[in-house]
Amino acid sequence: MASTKDNQRKIEQIERDVVKLGTDVAVVKNDIKTIKDNHLAHIEKNMQKLDYRMWWVLGLLVASVVSPFLPFIKGYGRIIRRSTFRQSYIPFHI
Questions:
Q1: Which long-range contacts (CB under 8 A, 24 or more apart) does 86-92 make?
Q2: Relative to the CA of 90, which of 9, 56, 62, 73 has its CA 20 to 30 Å away?
Q3: What is the mean pLDDT of residues 38-50?
Q4: CA–CA separation, 94 and 91 (whole Å)
């Protein structure tokens, strides 16, 4: 007799655990849906901003590395020297 009561208690405990697990699964499904619908869109938007900023930083880095070598490029140096000379040359007439 004691074994049937113990078995009955175990079965009732298992049924309660199954109901509790069912509600836990429903809560987890709801949380996953909320994350998928709301948070992923915000994360994607932030990633696009980071990508945009990364390209700007890369462009500035390339420009800062290349700009010191521009006077050594054939033809570019002559243009700078001529324009600088014309602007700085002031004839003195007294």
A1: none
A2: 73
A3: 85
A4: 10
- Amino acid 17 reads D
Q: How many CB atoms within 10 Å of residue 49?
A: 10
More confident residue, 27 or 85: 27
**What share of residues in the chain are helix, strand, coil (percent, to 5)?**
90, 0, 10
Angle at 9 between CA 4 and CA 15, to 5 degrees: 125
Q: Which parts of the chain are beta strand (E)? A: none
Q: Once rounded to an integer, what is the mean pLDDT over residues 53-76?
A: 85
Measure the CA–CA gap between 55 and 62, rounded to whole angstroms. 11
Question: Are the CB atoms for 57 and 51 separated by under 8 Å?
Answer: no
Mean pLDDT score, 9-36 = 91
Instruction: Say how many C-beta atoms besides its own lie within 10 A of residue 13's C-beta.
Output: 10
The overall average pLDDT reported for the chain is 80
